[in-house]
Amino acid sequence: MVGVVVAIAAAGITTAVLSIGDNGSATKPCDIPNAVREQPASAKTAPGGGGIEVEETGTSPSGLVSVGAVVRNTSSSIAYRTRVALKLIVSIQGLPPGPAQGPLITMEIPVMLPGQRVGVGRPLINMGATDKVISADIDLQTTTWLPNGALGGFTAVTDSYEHASRVNVSPPADTVRYTERSANCRALSSRRTAVVFRDATGKIVGGDLVPPDGKGNPSGSPQQPPSSPSCSPGERSTWIVPLQNIPQNADDKRTELYSYCDLNIPQTDVNDVP
Known about the structure:
Structural class: mainly beta
């Protein structure tokens, strides 16, 4: 195919259009932008009402405690690169409750379409037998609000849980395999995959944010490689290796996965911080 790439820049949106096919006829353009201008504002309030809301949170019970949560975009706008931070209130060795020590762990959700639910999660702190997590919270920080349709034909990438493998070794070698589906007209940029663990009652019992496609997969946990990279158009069976073992009280079949697919990779990606 002979193609001509035409760059279009308007209102901070840059896109590439493949305009001519090998028979001289115009091909259907891919209107998903390559980039948009970020204008961070409060993630809690969208211009026309609504905003990002936390639907539920939960923590793993012991050891390397992780937080899992689900947030929703209740507005009619697109939320682009939404930043959230995880906060824990803990009691260490019976002392009065207080914030977990250390800097807040910040993550960035690449795209949240109107009405979309997205999971977040990360391991946060090692807890001893006499320690206790009092509460977990999600600090909604900033996002760039875009009009609905500003990302062209961008659609949410969906993930379906397949199965989990638990391997009781150190470092953790548990794996979660899932099917990822993308109806987008071009390959997007993967910025990790979020996983939310739930117990038999549906309560969240932890979560994580790790590279997809088995990156970092330990020896002893062989997996069939994906047919194409995460966030590519089409369907693929792929897997993640959580940074901690899957919580003992997790009901594997209730596991939720969320591919973080972006227009491009930012120069500094907060999601890559261990």
